[in-house]
């Protein structure tokens, strides 16, 4: 076999391959035996049909085509090994010659891993993610706890943000009542001006919120609104005329932050003890997340040091993986993927965002792989066990069950890649300069559980994700 590599661009090569006529003949003979075992020819036992008889029955061209379909991938794989190509996608074959008695000539165009010059990341400064708990953080937790124990009081005044209203709502479409959009004696809370995401603008409030503001008990409100995707495929996007009758206006009286509240809402006797416990819990949560987020920041900072040509096939594979996960989420709400993406801001915008995220992830993977290769990172059996345990804890699966799934030959490569990249990040963390770290950081960030680890930092194991999705479906 002879082969030649021609560079098409930074991520694509054309591999020209010539295979000796004798090997082509062997491939055709093999195809003939395989087809002969399946074709019934009177006077011959299965598998004992002479090739010339078989050619007369199925056609010589069909037999050669069968041989080519089976042999080309094998010849291609042999050439890839000989040329030491690091391919990252399936090839596109262009066959010039493949016939009995002649050398076979064909070309394979395929994407390969781009050449990456490992950046100098030693001493790179990376700020530690926010890990300190402020009094405002504790106050916010206490406010959420107070709301759970709030007492509703009927008031004789117009509705204000944060108030509750007892309402009966009737939705009509083309003069017919829409049962799914109608409800009696609903206790509804008007969206507060301030949410956990910050100040809510008037546009972020619902049409019902806007009409309820300033209304008093006995008011009859009429407005039109568009039903969202949560109403199902038949009603999503429909224009509906609403009539809302305000029966009562209720104000939420929050309990005082005193020792009595601490006793009612917790196992503690004083409000100071409750504050201390909330502060301790928040500190643990924030530190855990910060340790995980630090790894993502380090990967991002190192990736920004180098320009990388991204194989389009890898990017699209990542996009399809993300779309698959979103499709599974959409199933949980009994809506289509398109409806799910529309609710997230529109299909085009959502797909564009997924592509941006995929490009960042693929770039991070390629850079990490280059760093790990240069550093001589090895993955041992213990590393695979630790990775399985980590993924099992994150997904809430028994480690043994997940290990059986992830160590299947079809999925083992993904597990090895995850372990390799995690060890590479550990290596990089030892070289960069982390600014503003906690006074007593965990000496081994990799050993910290990852309950809130951003999943796309290095691409968490797709095999583990798919296993969880399959079992939940």
Q: How many DSSP helices?
A: 14
Return the structural class: alpha+beta
CATH architecture of the largest domain: Orthogonal Bundle
CATH class assignment of the largest domain: Mainly Alpha
Indicate the percent of residues in helices.
Answer: 40-55%
Write the CATH homologous superfamily of the largest domain.
Trigger factor, C-terminal domain
Distance between the termini: 48 Å
Low-confidence stretches: 194-203, 445-473
- Please state the CA-atom Rg, rounded to the nearest Å: 32 Å
Mean pLDDT: 86
- The ordered H/E elements are EEHHHEEEHEEEEEEHEEHHHHHHHHEH
Give the biggest sheet. Answer: 6 strands, antiparallel
Q: In percent terms, what proportion of residues is strand?
A: 15-25%
Number of domains: 3
Instruction: Please tell me what the overall shape is.
Output: extended
Number of E-state strands: 14
What attributes does this structure have?
disordered C terminus, four-stranded antiparallel sheet, Trigger factor, domain 2, six-stranded antiparallel sheet, Chitinase A, domain 3, single chain, 473 residues, 14 helices, 46% helix, Alpha-Beta Plaits, alpha+beta
What does this structure look like?
This protein has 473 residues and is α+β, with helices and mostly antiparallel strands. The chain has 3 domains: 2-111, Trigger factor ribosome-binding domain (Alpha-Beta Plaits); 151-253, Chitinase A, domain 3, CATH 3.10.50; 267-472, Trigger factor, domain 2 (Orthogonal Bundle). The chain has 14 helices and 14 strands. It has helices at residues 21-36, 51-58, 60-83, 135-148, 207-212, 259-265, 271-303, 312-332, 337-343, 347-375, 381-395, 399-406, 412-429, 462-472, and strands at residues 2-9, 12-19, 92-97, 104-111, 125-127, 151-154, 164-173, 176-177, 183-189, 194-195, 198-199, 220-226, 239-253, 433-435. Strands 6, 7, 8, 9, 12 and 13 form a 6-stranded antiparallel sheet that branches. Strands 1-2-4-3 form a 4-stranded antiparallel sheet.
């Amino acid at each position: 076999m002879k082969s030649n590599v021609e560079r098409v661009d930074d991520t694509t090569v054309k591999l020209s391959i010539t295979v000796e006529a004798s090997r082509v003949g062997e491939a055709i003979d093999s195809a003939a035996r395989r087809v002969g075992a399946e074709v019934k020819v009177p006077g011959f036992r299965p598998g004992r049909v002479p090739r010339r008889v078989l050619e007369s029955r199925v056609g010589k061209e069909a037999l050669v085509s069968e041989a080519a379909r089976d042999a080309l991938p094998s010849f291609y794989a042999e050439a890839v090994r000989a040329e030491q190509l690091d391919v990252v996608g399936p090839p596109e074959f262009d066959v010039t010659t493949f016939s009995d008695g002649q050398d076979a000539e064909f070309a394979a165009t395929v994407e390969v891993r781009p050449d990456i010059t490992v950046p100098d990341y030693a001493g790179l400064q990376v700020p530690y993610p926010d890990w300190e708990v402020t009094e405002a953080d504790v106050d916010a937790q206490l406010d959420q706890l107070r709301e759970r124990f709030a007492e509703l009081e009927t008031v004789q005044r117009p509705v204000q943000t944060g108030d509750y209203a007892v309402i009966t709502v009737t939705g009509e479409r083309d003069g017919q009542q829409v049962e799914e959009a109608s409800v009696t004696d609903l206790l509804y809370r008007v969206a507060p001006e301030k949410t956990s995401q910050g100040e809510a603008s008037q546009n972020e409030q619902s049409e019902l919120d806007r009409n309820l503001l300033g209304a008093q008990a006995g008011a009859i409100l009429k407005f039109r609104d568009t039903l969202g995707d949560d109403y199902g495929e038949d009603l999503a996007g429909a224009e509906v005329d609403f009539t809302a009758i305000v029966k009562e206006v209720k104000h939420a009286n929050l309990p005082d932050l005193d020792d009595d509240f601490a006793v009612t809402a917790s196992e503690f006797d004083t409000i100071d003890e409750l504050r201390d416990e909330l502060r301790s819990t928040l500190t643990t949560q924030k530190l855990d997340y910060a340790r995980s987020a630090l790894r993502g920041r380090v990967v991002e900072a190192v990736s920004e040091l180098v320009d990388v040509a991204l194989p389009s096939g890898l990017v699209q594979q990542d996009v399809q993986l993300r779309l698959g996960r979103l499709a599974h989420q959409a199933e949980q709400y009994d809506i289509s993927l398109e409806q799910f993406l529309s609710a997230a801001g529109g299909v085009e915008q959502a797909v564009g965002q997924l592509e941006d995220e995929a490009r960042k992830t693929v770039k991070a993977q390629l850079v990490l792989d280059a760093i790990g290769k240069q550093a001589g990172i090895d993955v041992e059996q213990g590393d695979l066990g630790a990775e399985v345990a980590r993924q099992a804890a994150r997904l809430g699966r028994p480690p043994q069950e997940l290990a059986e799934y992830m160590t299947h030959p079809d999925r083992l490569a993904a597990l090895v890649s995850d372990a390799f990249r995690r060890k590479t990040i550990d290596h990089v963390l030892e070289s960069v300069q982390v600014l503003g770290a906690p006074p007593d950081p965990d000496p081994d960030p990799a050993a910290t559980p990852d309950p809130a680890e951003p999943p796309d930092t290095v691409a968490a194991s797709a095999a583990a994700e798919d296993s969880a999705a399959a079992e939940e479906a």
